[in-house]
Write the structure tokens for this entry.
Amino acid sequence: MKYRCVRCGRSVYALNGFTCGCGGTLEVVHTFPEISLEVFEHRLSHMDGPFSSGVWRYKELIHPRIGTDSIVTRPEGNTNLYRRGGVSRYTGVERLQLKHEGENPTGSFKDRGMTVAVSEAVRSGASVVACASTGNTSASMAAYAAQAGLKAVVFIPEGEIAYGKLAQALAYGAQVIQVRGSFDDAMRIVKESSSELGFYVLNSLNPWRIEGQKSIVFEMLQQRSWEPPDWILVPAGNLGNTAAFGKALRELKQLGLIEKAPRIASIQAEGASPFYRLWRGKLNHLETVKPETVASAIKIGNPVSWVKALDAIRETDGVVERVSDTEIMNAKAIVDASGVGCEPASAASVAGAKKLREAGVIGLDEEVVCILTGNLLKDPENTVKYHLGEMASIDALYANRPVKVEPDVDSIERLLRQPNGQPVEAVVAGS
Ligand SMILES: *Cc1c(COP(=O)(O)O)cnc(C)c1O
Ligand SMILES: [Zn+2]
């Protein structure tokens, strides 16, 4: 296996410690076999086995040499692309599609990277896997480790992860360690303890996670008959997806499988936007921030993959934008009311589409694919609080307040007749 340090460019042949001696992150270097798009079309007919996965369908572009007996798959991917009038009207982007990664087996795109990295862990003989997580990585890792018979250790920032995700990690049987600190502290502890305690690290520091996440782009393009949109918008925290999308597009171009790459727009939460500052300020180095946002999945102040992500933005003539928690939660309410639904962090892409369209960065006729990274059910607490009007710093424009009535038909009839009856309005808004 060959890896390349994205900082010093050196070639590395083993994943000891998961970083280069210089501290830089590694990426997988492939020697691709000959490949044509017809192979991927043919595999759409598979109902079973690895090639029915929306990740392993593209095996030649992701992990050409792994034997199928090492592959641990649910299978994942095969997520839908939606058009919704309500979302188009809200953002002002008429030709907008939502790619719903919350439809993966454990409810987030993390499964796409996890199937590849866990398979690689199995191939390399690992017995204990570990990660730091804002929630979805731990949920995904716990499920795949359970399937593969590996011991799973997850480090999470105490009291900072959404309940749906904590429930999954516990239920799938991982050893859950709550760190008194932020995600960034948890990440540092994993790095420090991995070599000493022999953990196989499954954070996106692990370059195989990035390989699996490239399949979001492959699958989206295949669903569009290999016609790239003008833009891909993606919520950005640790920047693994931004990095993966850049690598996917670079490799597709190298192989001559697409001619023109879409522009990538990474969307951060205002209170956790070190990458935005780096890009906007044309800085040479990322400055860590203390993160603060309701979107816990992107509440990261020291993103691991910023060097790779910066290359992705530069190579695709992309942009970095940031949106407030109010913009995120209101965009989420619109996505939810369209019947599609997502977790808070996911809605950053849709909030970003609105902001970039209003600024004229996204043109009137341009085609946009917004990635929804996680499932609505991941974070029920923030969804309910929004609709009850209980989020102090958020202007909940689309709150759908429940109402209390006496248990008789007359009161209910009177309620539904009210012109401003909330339940009725919510149905109309989503149509
Ligand atoms: C992990 C995660 C993100 C952040 O993705 P990065 O690749 O770390 O930038 C965004 N949304 C959800 C739901 C996530 O689980
Ligand atoms: Zn290096």
In short: The chain has 17 helices and 13 strands. The radius of gyration is 21 Å.
